[in-house]
């Protein structure tokens, strides 16, 4: 499923990362730069996760593409937060390049990831966010706990997915 909304006059598509292996290093750089370098991660481990992303199982990474360039991403993964190992699956690594923020791309990525989770017969999703709680609440997520991450205090959020009719 490819979405083609107009964002700032250019068509935006949301595609599976596995279809664009040339974007793996970009996604890994965004993820490692945003989260991994502050939590004892490694670029190599981050890249390896993106290299295993498929459309048929987890991890599944979606990339927002505008003018043939990646502008954002999001991942569906079995695990994300070590402090809650019993919770699964997770929305993680939502990132939109700073030049492309405030255009609704993050919301489109969230919605598409939720659709993919339903396609994989998942009933709910979890996420951790230090600073984007309002964005997720606008998409129907609710905070269920507060946790401490290597980046500071964060909201643990959940969304029950409604089956498509």
Description:
- The structure is a single chain.
- This protein is of the alpha+beta class and 165 residues long.
- Helix content is 25%, strand content 33%.
- It has four helices and eight strands, in the order ββααβββαβαββ.
- The protein has helices spanning 24-34, 43-51, 105-119, 133-138, and strands spanning 6-7, 10-16, 60-66, 69-77, 90-96, 124-129, 142-149, 152-160.
- The strands form two sheets. The chain has a five-stranded antiparallel beta sheet with strand order 1-2-3-4-5, sandwiched between helices. It has a three-stranded antiparallel beta sheet with strand order 6-8-7.
- Strand 1 (6-7) and strand 2 form a beta hairpin.
- The longest helix is centred in the last third of the chain and has 15 residues, at 105-119.
- It is globular, with a radius of gyration of 15 Å.
